[in-house]
Amino acid sequence: MPAPENTRRIFLVRHGETLYGANTGGKDDLTPAGYQQIEALEVMLRPTALDAIYASPLERAQATARTLAGGSGVPVTTVPALREITPGDLSVLSAATSEGVAGFLRQAIGYFVDPETRWDTKYLGGESYRDLRARVWPFFTELIARDDWRRVLVVAHGGVNNAVLGRILGTGEPGLANIEQDFGGLNIIDVVGGRPVVRLLNFTAYDPLKSDLEASSMDVLRAILETGLG
């Protein structure tokens, strides 16, 4: 049965696997496994006619968006508001040793897994989760209010997607919704009569039944760091 004319769809994707610039000379790119994850999703999305593709300015999201665009000819529009939650001091990312980057990433992981993280807890002295949602949600409000699109793709990050999905699902304090976002995970948000509704949550084209994804995304990231950084 075809969708009603007033139903529109947002494909919200988390970028593929990355080392976040660690052990890669600071380049915030996808790993080979990350590209395989996104290429599997691109095959599934290929028959879908997209009106626009929006992406965070961070390279891991840009690489994901370019891969998903494939040969469609749809340009990638960069949206600064879609960047991941921002720490207070990024200087550690330019540390000369991989240990400095690893230490930063361990603290970053801790923010998302610590049960003491609350709505106004600062992320490494930077944005709080309240700040993140306040920054990200206006983009979706404006997108939902427009009627010049039918199908769009949005590529962002685990924290950003959590904020968006949590807002739609109505979660409040402490702000971190109990929603998993695997690398390359696809969420579908349908807009029906101006109301956003979650249709699909965290689908992974490269492992549809998540047979190898029983660990949380943070545990997966820890394993990646142990392999990539020792």
Model description:
With 230 residues, this protein is an alpha/beta fold. Helices cover 36% and strands 16% of the residues. A six-stranded mixed sheet has the order 3-2-4-1-5-6, sandwiched between helices. Helix 3 (98-113) runs antiparallel to helix 6 and helix 4 packs across helix 5. The chain has a single domain (7-229), classed as 3-Layer(aba) Sandwich (Rossmann fold). The chain contains six helices and six strands.
Helix and strand layout, with pairings?
Blueprint: E1 7-14, H1 32-45, E2 52-55, H2 59-69, E3 76-78, H3 98-113, H4 129-145, E4 151-156, H5 158-169, E5 186-192, E6 195-203, H6 217-229
Parallel strand pairs: 1-4, 2-3, 2-4
Antiparallel strand pairs: 1-5, 5-6
Helix pairs in contact: 1-2, 3-6, 4-5
